[in-house]
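Re: weekly structure request thread

Next one in the queue (165 aa):
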Amino acid sequence: MKSKVKLTITIALIATFGGVGIVETVGATPDESQRLRGLGDRVFFVEVYDLFEGTSFDNCYFFLPDGTWIDPPFPAPGTWSQNSNGAKTSYVAGAIALDFDIGAPGNPFLVTLLLNQQGTVTPAGGKGTLQLWAFSQVIIPDFGIGVVGEFISVGYEVDECPIDF
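Done, posted below.
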């Protein structure tokens, strides 16, 4: 199971980042009127479970109509693309932060920081409220560092984010 997840994440990273570190802006707001069809212009309030630390925190994800994806704690906006439509909508989102400093104060150590997320959005119990479930990884590809964080996010659509970032 773990190797299947790693393969899926690797494929998602290649799809998200084009295999060469370039992110293309991809809008995904289908014209159909069904409530769940397009993720564009939606905000989700989520509880994020840090699988490495065993802790959790509140967050919001913003899916802008132009394909921009914002995860406020991450230092750079990214992009998202919708993989399916209907009762279970899947998506891939990702962001790249270049020259992110992980060094000690006064001793900079700049790396590339990647955030990759695969998720699904479904209606809650047929009531129309959209629920989000997502798996995310934070990766430092430089120097063979690799995965530095894994997260599960669970939440629901809101009109606006209740957190002041």
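Strands lie at 42-50, 55-63, 68-70, 78-82, 89-101, 110-123, 130-140, 146-158. The chain has one domain: 2-158.
Next request, please.
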